[in-house]
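Please, why this fold?
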Amino acid sequence: MSFDIQTFVLGLVQGICEFLPISSSGHLALLQHFFGFGDLGENLVAFDLLLHCATVLVILIYFRAKIFRVICDWLCGWFSQEKRKSWGWAYAWQIIIATFMTGLIGLPLRKIVDAMSDSPLAVGCGLIFTAIVLSFLPVSSSRPRSKSLFAIALAVGFAQGLAVLPGVSRSGMTIAAGIFMGLGLTEAFEFSFLISVPAVLGASLLEFLKLLKNPDAIFLPDGYVWACVIAFVAGFAALNIMRRLVLLGKWAYFGLYCLVIGAAAILFSLEIF
């Protein structure tokens, strides 16, 4: 297997940034531009898909027990009235509703996302928006919890749909929405990453179908296997770190980081430096 340092760095960044609230899409877009991959455009879609599959695998393994319970309760609920009273049945419908809301918001933004990904200025603005959201995020949930599971799912799903914009952190937005709706820190953390699975897999399927229509456009850079491996390893470590930081309410550091990187991207795009 060949090894390429630039490809390896992209995989490392995907693994870390996918779970920390600093926007993996924004960092990948900036790095691809910096490494000179920007001219490849849609040819990098296959590579991005592989990296996202690696990080989705992290979530499936990390939350395997809860995912298994939710799936079992939801499937059994179609045949058992008693199972429809279970936690997993209601939780599964929350995930479905949140995923529907994500698609409702995210799909119309796809063309805008493609244009923004090629613009360091737009990515920088997205990172600053993330910094603002994180700066207003409390260290714990002080709001009364919404009694409507439907409302919680809609709010978090809307936040995830908005986070398709490069530079806008998916984990940051969804955890913030969950806390705003009164979820506890652990609840917000878990729901944020569980709803990412169907959303990422659905988006990946759409991109894969597009690739099938134009297989000549598929391009995998040298060392892509090692990039996927490091994305998985780094992602697993980052998810564990993220859980601890969420419980400690350490948001300000990430907000400051996004502000600095976002401002630098904007200044460089305007050729001030």
Q: What stands out?
A: Residues 173 and 194 are 14 Å apart (CA to CA). The chain has 13 helices and no strands.
